[in-house]
Amino acid sequence: TTRTPAFLGLGINDKLLPTSTSQGDVIIGLIDTGVWPELKSFDDMGLDPVPSSWKGECEEGTNFKSSNCNRKLIGARFFCKGYEAILGPIDESTESKSPRDDDGHGTHTATTAAGSATTSANLFGYASGTARGMAPHARIAAYKACWLGGCFTSDILAAMEKAIDERVDILSMSIGGSISEYYRDTVAVGAFTAMKKGILVSCSAGNAGPDSGSLSNLAPWITTVGAGTIDRDFPAYVILGDGRNFTGASLYSGKPLPSKLLSLTYAGKASNMTSGSFCMTGSLNSEDVKGKIVVCDRGGNSRVQKGLVVRKAGGVGMILANTEAYGEELVADAHLIPAASLGLKGAEDIKKYISSGRKPTATIGFSGTELGVQPSPVVASFSSRGPNPLTPEILKPDLIAPGVNILAGWTGKVGPTGLDGDTRHVSFNIISGTSMSCPHLSGLAALVKASHPEWSPAAIKSALMTTAYTAYKNGKTIIDVATGLPSTPFDYGAGHVDPIAALDPGLVYDATVKDYVDFLCALNYSSDQIKHTTAEEYSCSSSKTYKLGDLNYPSFAVTLETTPENQDRKAMSTMKYTRTLTNVGRPATYKASVSTHTASLKVIVEPESLSFNTINEKKSFTVTVSADSMPSGTSSFAHLTWSDGKHTVTSPIAFTW
Amino acid sequence: KAENKHDQLERRTYIVHMDKSHMPASFEDHHEWYYSSLRSAADSAQMLYTYNSVIHGFSTRLTDEEATSLENQPGTLSLVPETRYELH
Lengths: 657, 88
What we know:
The complex is a heterodimer.
Chain A: H1 4-7, H2 20-23, E1 27-32, E2 73-78, H3 81-87, H4 105-114, E3 118-123, E4 126-131, E5 139-144, E6 146-147, E7 150-152, H5 153-165, E8 170-173, E9 175-176, H6 186-196, E10 200-204, E11 222-228, E12 232-233, E13 235-240, E14 245-249, E15 262-266, H7 286-289, E16 293-297, H8 303-312, E17 317-321, E18 339-342, H9 344-355, E19 361-366, E20 370-371, E21 399-402, E22 406-409, E23 428-431, H10 434-451, H11 457-466, E24 479-480, E25 485-486, H12 489-492, H13 499-502, E26 507-508, H14 513-522, H15 527-534, E27 556-559, E28 572-583, E29 588-596, E30 601-606, E31 609-612, E32 618-628, E33 635-643, E34 648-656
Parallel strand pairs in A: 1-5, 1-8, 2-5, 8-10, 10-11, 11-21, 15-16, 16-17, 17-18, 27-34
Antiparallel strand pairs in A: 3-4, 6-7, 12-20, 13-14, 13-19, 15-19, 22-23, 24-25, 26-28, 28-32, 29-31, 29-33, 30-32, 33-34
Chain B: H1 2-10, E1 12-18, H2 30-41, E2 47-51, E3 57-62, H3 64-71, E4 76-81, E5 84-87
Antiparallel strand pairs in B: 1-3, 1-4, 2-3
């Protein structure tokens, strides 16, 4: 990717960063749509021989040879038996029965995680610079389990098993499905075995935001990644006939609109269909849009598809209007006609202007790439939000990473919009989603793993979470673009990843397989359900009291008593949590502090100070929360920080009633 | 194509979790045992994958009746219907 390494503070010469040799020992497996191996981002120049631990290989198939692998792309496989069983044999004239990526998504995620540095990367001149993965010397193994018709769990599970057996270190999965109990959740089950074998599993949180409780990939042994913006925009301008000017976003690169103002219309008024405002295929009346710029509402179909619908009906430009659900979030697309996306406020103003009936006119202009945009990051509107709909006692997402307008490698099979009619071939594309934030985190986890090969997946996750930041340099909380207001741990989890800080966290909240089994016991899982989840025999002790909140997790989610309806009297409830910190730094004394903005909440940490004398020394503490009862649905937040003056080890605390 | 369509209507893909501790001593290899369990519940069903580490079991396509029969076989922990995941 371009820009995100700098945005994340990954300077080339930072002395904390692992060497290229130690990075080269880390293997990132991605379960996705495959890989386009000819890209320069998979160049293996300067890489050491493949680690001797590696058991994988490059599987041959349609337009894919074992020679497509090298010291960067060290493994490539495909899994299609489940897909073919449902949809019939793969039509090899349209889809490669091989690890080759016909979609682009898998190539984008792989290069984001660990692509080699490639100069002069850009998409039609946008976002130009040197593109590199987060761990540019780490190895990539691509497991194709996602096809044009989707990703089926039998194939995903087979891919996970292979990746685990072949000894990847990090497993990156930018996919999600419906929520189910952990023992019926294929990715959760596969990730448990991966965790047991020391593999960190990083998954996308989902793009169902900003609705609350919209997350996927919820298991506590998974690292669940939401998405934020970076300090880069692709501004486009919509100028109205009355002189007003609105800033939007676009990656359009073709012939500009004529310099004169053009007639402007709203798709909802140029269609006889009830959902005409979305510019669905065949919905626009040619006589109403011919020669005009058309305002289309976001949603219903793909954003770039709307431009084609407008063009087919005779329109010459398109304004993609955000609705309430998208707020002010601007997602740039490589439209095939002059087009720009606009935030909710601007979109509403333009619709009012059109309704005013004074022969509305407009034009659209494009001004390339803007850097240094502030504030950044902001939480992406689409990023799925907490609370955790399955286990409210575990806070999810775990953290956020860059996921908006990310430039990374692309397939040679389809153009940047992915539309059939898009014949443009590009080596890089700019796309958005928690799919993009997940491999950022996977690559950063690879850096931590390279620096600390002995750390468990839980320790790596803890390092990434407890060093994440929640405020800008001016002290103000990271904004949620969906509302324009300060975001909360339900939006960003522990905060935005800060990889350099994560390399030296001071302390970690480690967790063992037994801790996760205890968590399953706390869920009251039967022995069969535990066996499902863990693929092993474990039993819960009848003499032990298991508590969900006692999982040694780097964040806290406190569920409290609600005030009964029609009762004014507030009852006080008290909850107690135990956590254990492991020293991974020098001997030091850490002091606890809690920041909370709600007077009715009391948080007591005991002891208030912990001294560590040796490496890997463990110390436990308790957090006691007392709170008045509140109406159901109320939430509040705090942060617990342990600091020795050099390190800050911070955990979010989310309270829900 | 017609066969596929028929198959689609009749069968669903399941991920079958097996309890290896229930494998009868007469089987030397758990694959054999999985295969035998599947055969006794569903004559013509094919295994898509066998899973050895991530879970113990296999995936296959079964009719409702076959699924019920397999579920009742000793050593079968559960049948989880396949779901479709999406790119994020």
